[in-house]
Amino acid sequence: MGVRLVNPEISVIGDLLLFNLVALLASISVFAARKTASSTRIPIALAILAWTSGSTISSWNALMENPLPEWPSDLGYLLFYPLLFFGLVSALKDPRSGNHIQLLDSLIIALGISSILSIIALTATAAELGLSDYELFLKNFYPIADVLLVATVLVIIIRSGLDTRNLVTFVALALFTLIDILFLIQSSSGSYRFGSLIDSGWLIALILLAESQWQRTSERIKGSSHPLFGTVIAAVGSGLIIAIEILRPERLPSGAMIPAFATLTLAFVRMSLALIEAQRLNEVTILATTDELTGLANRRKFIAEIATVERGDIVILIDLNGFKPINDNYGHGAGDELLRQAALRLSRTFDRDWTFARLGGDEFGLLVRGGGSKEEIANSIVAAFSYPFQLTAVGEMRISASIGVAEEDGRGELLKRADLAMYSAKRSGQSIAYWSHLAPDATNLSPLTDRR
If we measure between CA atoms, which residue out of 206, 216, 211, 210 comes closest to residue 163? Predict the structure, then answer.
């Protein structure tokens, strides 16, 4: 820019060599910025390098008599945007969490903001003047890509705070966007001149972008700083833009449909990933609360359910008599088969709304909510063991059960009282013992859980 102010005349040295050399040095500077993660600085450095290559070819064609093809220049300018976008997006993802849904939320909000800003930018550059399809594509692409980059930086600021790096990056891209819009306006009106101060504006923006990568950044990532509400607003707003474009195509620039469609697409992807994640978490929860051997609820699940009992609910503990000799004499395979058969037989006896769990070893627990006849339930358990089990490697085996029953009456310690009742049944040789029927000294008995 100093060269431009001192010598406003267009020259090969100033406009071809020095101008693009400064841009090249900006790219090298970003490569060397070790304060920035490689996943961020390498794409940004490549983005500036791509822009520099496009600018070099464009400058050559403006100054030299033997022009080069235009498409490499356009390609360099176009590559600037996706490379810079990927560099910025890498800062949105917390490497410690690997949460892809948070990243998608950020992108959806950025695209939603860019949908609105695109309407403003495209409206400002609306004159087409008989452009070809390719020229019209470039005319729409640049402002949309610019506002998407600005929106992405805004989301980064929302998530990680306004530190020096984010502020300088925002200023750089806001300036770059402003210069692009001014360039498009002047190009449409035919007033743009190569080597004007607008060109210096691009260079200043790139220098600021390179400088931002040397600034320290906040290490905190706020995973909840843009809640689902922001994502929903972005998706709904983009849907409204598409609806207006369909119903009244003359009201909005057609180019605004691009970020709007992208926003809705990512919103559907986000919803799908959220459903998959919810299913995975549900499976993990099921595994954490399920007994692997029998498929019943496990002790953790049973304890959690008992914590929410109400008056009249019933807890029944069941201990298998004769299981240990079978397990010791015929092996764990026979013991496991017996446990599975016992669990299946009892499950068919109980209502599906009841919580039936294997508490460990040969002990099972049953939680009956809403009351019921505890005598009938206990007798049905006894009846379930009245006929033998058929074990594959052993043959016919008979076992019985000791059953302890306790009803919630407001005194608490329901599981302990059912355990004491079961211990009383085992000690007395009876099949069933009810806490309410125990003698007063029953509370001095050692519960079964203390003897395992």
Answer: 216
- Please tell me the predicted confidence (pLDDT) of residue 172: 93
pLDDT at 335: 92
DSSP 190: T
Q: Note the pLDDT tens digit of each residue in 257-294.
A: 667 776 767 766 766 676 677 677 777 777 788 888 99
CA–CA distance, 213 with 207 (Å, rounded to integer)? 10
Question: CB-based contacts of 154: which residues, under 8 Å, 6+ apart?
Answer: 110, 113, 170
Measure the CA–CA gap between 374 and 21, rounded to whole angstroms. Answer: 89
Range 129-138 burial, b when 16+ CB lie within 10 A, else e: eeeeeeeeee
Which pLDDT tens digit goes with each residue over 212-262?
A: 888 876 554 444 444 455 555 655 555 555 555 555 665 556 566 667 776
What's residue 280's pLDDT?
A: 75
Phi and psi, residue 37, nearest 5°: -60, 145
- Identify whether the C-beta of residue 237 lies closer than 8 Å to the C-beta of residue 116: yes
Distance between CA atoms of residues 114 and 167, nearest Å:
19
Beta bridge partners, 316, equal 366, 405
Q: How far is CA 380 from CA 293, 294, 400, 432, in A?
A: 24, 20, 13, 11
Model confidence, pTM: 0.51
Domain 299-450: CATH superfamily is Reverse transcriptase/Diguanylate cyclase domain (3.30.70.270)
Domain range list for the chain: 2-284, 299-450
Q: How many residues does the chain have?
A: 452
Spatial contact of 378 and 432, defined as CB atoms under 8 Å apart? yes
Tokens 């993802």 found at: 93
pLDDT at 149 over 50: yes
Phi, psi of 15 (to 5 degrees): -95, -25
- Residues 6 or more apart whose Cβ sits within 8 Å of residue 305: 297, 355, 367
- Lookup: tokens for 20: 């693009």
Q: How many CA atoms lie within 13 A of 88 on its CB side?
A: 31
How far is C-alpha 55 from the geometric centre of its chain's CA atoms?
Answer: 39
